[in-house]
Specification:
This protein is α/β, with parallel strands linked by helices. It is built from 11 helices and 10 strands. The structure holds adenosine-5'-diphosphate (ADP) and magnesium ion.
Length: about 260
């Protein structure tokens, strides 16, 4: 097998007494898609922020394409190299898009000379937006369109890894499906790798090859997504699956099982 695009090695991060991330390791294959699932507070976002570099780990390391990810870089070339390792798309692009800045400016912002007008059109096409979207302000776009812009922005530097933290959680189901299809197409075309963080097991089933299950900052189960979702080995994973509303669903029973775990 070729070198993984991304490896997390024994990451830890504590906030006071809370061990938000407690010895997390995983590998993401080049062109692959790895899901991180777990309840709210299990350490998913902290793990993502460490991978992206928005948060420092107390210990452990992040390795991209076989190289340890530097914590700080100097100069434009260094910043671009670092940006090309990992990019991130958040749950609510509204918060990360400046309302006064046009889509074109957003796409050109980080590395202007790499994103001339034809490249902006190409990026928009990539995420299924028409060329005229370049002139729009975020407030003129729908939630789904804004998430497409956020994805285009993340892809602008052609990163090896795209981290998506609850990136479709705020969207209507039909729009969610469109974005998930788009992400699948982009992965096929570009060989970008996804680290896909979600509390939604249906989303994981749809867009990941492998999955890790986190609880209290630890990885408690890992494997091929199809295996983990059809034959979970750990009671906690079973409970997560049972917690998804379905016919014959009994929330009381699930709450009791959760207390017993
Ligand atoms: P998830 O994304 O799975 O919901 P998080 O990584 O956001 O989990 O949080 C994991 C734990 O770390 C939670 O108990 C949360 O309250 C705590 N935590 C996360 N970020 C901070 C912070 N900046 N300061 C203090 N505690 C934090
Ligand atoms: Mg989170």
């Amino acid at each position: 097998m070729s070198e993984p695009a991304l490896q997390a090695v024994n990451l830890t991060r504590a906030y006071g007494a809370v061990r938000a991330v407690d010895g997390v390791s995983f590998a993401l294959a080049r062109g692959g898609s790895l899901g991180i699932v777990g309840e709210s507070g299990s350490g998913k976002t902290t793990t993502a922020r460490i991978v992206v570099g928005l948060e420092q780990a107390d210990s452990g390391e992040v390795v991209v394409d076989g190289r340890r990810r530097p914590t700080a870089v100097r100069g434009r070339a260094g910043r671009l190299a670092r940006a090309r390792e990992v990019q991130m798309a958040f749950q609510d692009p509204y918060l990360s898009l400046d309302p006064r800045t046009s889509v074109e400016s957003v796409l050109r912002l980080h590395f202007p000379d790499r994103n001339p007008a034809p490249r902006v059109r190409e990026l928009l096409g990539h995420v299924g937006l028409p060329a005229r979207a370049a002139d729009a302000r975020p407030g003129q776009l729908s939630g789904g369109q804004r998430q497409r812009v956020a994805i285009a922005r993340a892809l602008a530097v052609e990163p090896a890894v795209l981290v998506l933290d609850e990136a479709v959680a705020a969207l209507d189901v039909s729009v969610q499906a469109q974005i998930l299809n788009l992400l699948a197409d982009i992965r096929e075309q570009t060989r970008v790798s996804y680290l896909f963080i979600t509390h939604d097991l249906g989303v994981v089933r749809c867009v990941t090859d492998d999955v890790i299950v986190m609880r209290h900052g630890r990885v408690i189960e890992a494997g091929a997504t199809a295996d983990v979702l059809t034959a979970p080995q750990r009671p906690y994973t079973r409970l997560l699956l049972d917690s998804v509303p379905h016919p014959g669903w009994d929330p009381e029973q699930i709450a009791a099982a959760r207390r017993a775990l």
